[in-house]
Specification:
The protein is an alpha/beta fold. The chain has ten helices and eight strands. It has two domains: 124 residues, 3-Layer(aba) Sandwich (Rossmann fold); 83 residues, Orthogonal Bundle (Arc Repressor Mutant, subunit A), CATH 1.10.10. The strands form two sheets. Strands 2-1-3-4-5 form a five-stranded parallel β-sheet, with helices on both faces. α5 packs across α10.
Length: 218
């Protein structure tokens, strides 16, 4: 699995290197830039998944940089960090393009939670923007189809009768109908031994549904 790439933009070398170290210790690929200007040049050759940018820097600050990044790379996630935490600053940051906001000094766990949350949202947004997603979501609006996908995600492979027993559905015709729909949408496949399993598209959709459920308040 390819590691997520992150870019840390801060003129404070100690803080920049500390953030990079935390991210790398947690499986991310992270690099740093000491200025907004150098970051703009670096991103031209390699666009990261997420940028962490300081508000106050010599030359161009974070507030001025974020609209430029969002204009050229609208899918890029941005977390702004600042020593001046006020409601007005937070609102201004969001209006300028920040997806999240951290106040100095922030704890290691706060940084990681913000990074992971924004990367999950990025994955969710990318999946929703894929072609034919409207048709796919329409297919999964049915609860039985979602249950079938969840069962196959857990068990990996299941024959028809095992699946109907697992779901507790006595109407085999109904299960068969929904399986055919999932096969037609390339979420489920059937091998020569008549066992059903998820396709790569089905696995992707399970991930999408999990992320979607996390975004719904309980």
């Amino acid at each position: 699995m390819k590691a997520e790439t992150l870019l840390v933009i801060d003129d404070d070398q100690d803080l920049r290197e500390s953030v990079i170290e935390i991210l790398e210790d947690n499986g991310f690929v992270a690099t740093g830039c000491e200025s907004a200007e150098s970051a703009l040049q670096k991103i031209k050759t390699e666009v990261p998944s997420l940028v962490i940018v300081d508000n106050m820097m010599p030359g161009m600050g974070g507030m001025a940089l974020m609209p430029l990044l969002k204009n050229d790379y609208p899918g890029l996630k941005i977390i702004m960090i600042t020593a001046f935490s006020t409601v007005d600053n937070a609102v201004a940051a969001m209006k300028s393009g920040a997806d999240d906001y951290l106040s100095k000094p922030f704890r290691r766990d706060e940084l990681l939670v913000a990074v992971k949350r924004n990367l999950e949202e990025l994955k969710f947004e990318q999946q929703l923007s894929e072609p034919d997603m409207d048709e796919a979501l329409s297919c999964l609006s049915n609860q039985i189809r979602r249950q079938i996908l969840a069962a196959l995600a857990e068990k990996k492979e299941m024959r028809f009768m095992d699946l109907t027993r697992y779901l507790g559905i006595s109407d085999h015709t109904k299960v068969n109908f929904h399986l055919k729909n999932l096969k037609a949408n390339n979420f489920v496949s059937q091998d020569r031994e008549k066992s059903y399993s998820l396709t790569p598209e089905g696995v992707k959709m399970i991930d999408c549904l999990h992320l979607f459920s996390k975004r719904i308040p309980s």
